[in-house]
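for the record, two folds in this file. i put them one after another cuz i was lazy. first one right below, seq on top, structure tokens after. the second one comes after a little note so u can tell where it starts
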Amino acid sequence: MWKEADNKLYRRFTFNDFSEAFGFMSRVALLAEAAGHHPTWTNTYNRVEIWLTTHDAGNTVTDRDRKLAQAIDRLLA
């Protein structure tokens, strides 16, 4: 589940291996590009961490972040 703290939505994802994690990141990248909204994220082996915030709104969580978070969640459904 996504957690909201420090004006960001955050979620950590764990996969079976690096290839699966990287594939997920590629799918998220396509969603983000289509939405014109790009996450801050890290990847270490099978783990992906994502932080969403809207820079144009003063680095706070907006509906734009929540919509992208929901779209990311649908990738895993």
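(here's the note) second protein begins now
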Amino acid sequence: MKIRVNGEGVQLKQPIQTVEELLHHLNLEKKSLIIEHNHIILKKDQHRESQVSDGDQFEIVHFVGGG
């Protein structure tokens, strides 16, 4: 399966069914994130039910604290 994450092509070698699984695969599941899936911003409770398909596009932004 091939998807785009933040403008870059990503080839997934293992099957990924949901956005929640994708975040786990990318080691991002514990971060505060905003995810845009095919130009639609997802709420956190939608990550478990939103399906990932070949050719999907994601923009993932996470917050960094500092001072």
